[in-house]
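Colleagues,

Please find the record for the two-part complex below.
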Amino acid sequence: MTGRVIVITSGKGGVGKTTTSANIGTALAKAGHKVVLIDTDLGLRNLDLLLGLENRIVYTIVDVIEERCKLKQALVKDKKNPNLSLLAAAQTRDKTAVNAEQLKEICDTLREENDFVLVDCPAGIEQGFQNAVAGANEAIVVTTPEMSAIRDADRIIGLLATKEEISSTKLLLNRVRPSLIKSNEMMSVDDVIGILEIPLIGIIPEDTGIITSTNKGEPIVNDENALAGKAYRNVAQRILGEEVPFLDLDEPKGFMAKIKNAFAKLKVKV
Amino acid sequence: MLLEKGFVKNGFIIDLSNAKNTTQLVFELSSIMEHPDVKGKNVCLKLGGSDLKQSQLLSIKALIESMDSSIAFIDTTSEQTEASAVSLGIMVSKVSDQDIQDGIVGTLPDEVSEESVMVKSEEISLDSSGQSEASLSSSHIETTEGIEDIYNEISAEELSEIIPSEDSEKTYFTKFAANEGLLNDEHSKYILLDTGNVLPEGVEENSTNTESLPTLYLNQTLRSGQTVSYDGNILIIGDAHPGSEIIAGGDITVWGILGGIAHAGNAGNITSKVRALKLNAIQLRIAGLYARRNDTLNVPYVQKSNEFTPEVAQIEDGKIVIYKKLRRD
């Protein structure tokens, strides 16, 4: 078995790389695939928190590299889904504790026994980024519809293009607010694709549910009702090769429509 | 990778270790690449001790790829070149003397050099407009001519609407936004930075003929953080995104949207020009004159292709002047 190694990267911090990794990983595992998530953000690890696995980490990726444990021992199984496991980053070390070759070796070993290896990349384009992309053969670039995030994504796409091993680079547009797009205050999805010129793999709407999901350590894909959860499930399906239409994010009700609706209901009652 | 113990399968080793500077290196390389035996092959570059920046190596890579060849690996003794290669994903290896003795090295006839190249560029120069770039390969020539054709079409179509002028170039373009000496004029597209002439010490204004150098032809999009620098003229088929940098000794022509920084004539050549289908450069620099895009200019996030208006920026009377194709409306 040779699984796919996908790096999730963005350049800019805070656009939702880790949230995306946790959610896509969970969604793929729920669909019955064996998934390993690797957190390469050494010193600033978060992925374990999002999955609620912080208290289960015994060994980290640095322990594996420095041969204090076997790779299998360092994989933390998810609470709910046995298909999903996490290779956590060391919190007490920094990016220089690992090099690109070592990470590539880990990815190559893991892909033999898993369908998907998702690498959560740290922000920036330094050592951490170079490490994270070393073993990957696909990339997902996460960005938000802001000029700063897009500029950084553009830089990252340029850097990824120089990596021969990476055969496909797709775009995931996060934190989209349809109401702002409508009022021309936010760049539209078409605008972003027009600038970055790479294929789109998903559009995730802004969802306050993400905050509570992060705090609880429960990925939002597990919430059947959340729109962002649905969007992430769709991304996972697209990764699996299915053709899923993009969510229609146009909120059917604006503020005025909501009021009208409320009045209409009242009338019925009266 | 087609790499096995230091020799290149289906390829050539090109020894450029004697080149004195980058220009000579690129020139020699392009004359060798011109040879029909080299086209479509893998090449290994022996670069000796030349220090190449990432951008220079990227340019060389692009040059080789534009000839349908690819770099198998490079052999260098310079640490800087090695670092640049690694960051570009080019393999670094050593060519052993054994490989050379075994006859893997392609020996090229001496005639393939300046002479044949010069003839070709002369042919192009005979073109009516006189603004063609010197090109080396046949594919280059085709493309350059393609551009001329389109300009000629534009002129034929719209000639009746354009005030006749003695200068042939001005029949295609009309003056639309010049600095006209008014710094901070809110109506001009570009505003000269009040830095005076910022040429480095020892560099003087000149009007070197950059047509004698081969043109760097890039068929790709330049993304943020990518830079291309070259002593001759640069032609880019694609967009130059904001955050990218193009630095040329001669002219810069972008067949697309120019959104980054463009510096034409960086060695003081005041006859250099910047041309683009859409001139949105965040900074426009020609020789020692630097201009920034006007803040009041609301450049939309995405340019629609039906809004393209080819523009040319050049120096006139110590100012940067932009010429724009006349609109029909």
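Residues 38 and 263 of chain A are 51 Å apart (CA to CA).

Comments are welcome before we finalize the supplementary table.
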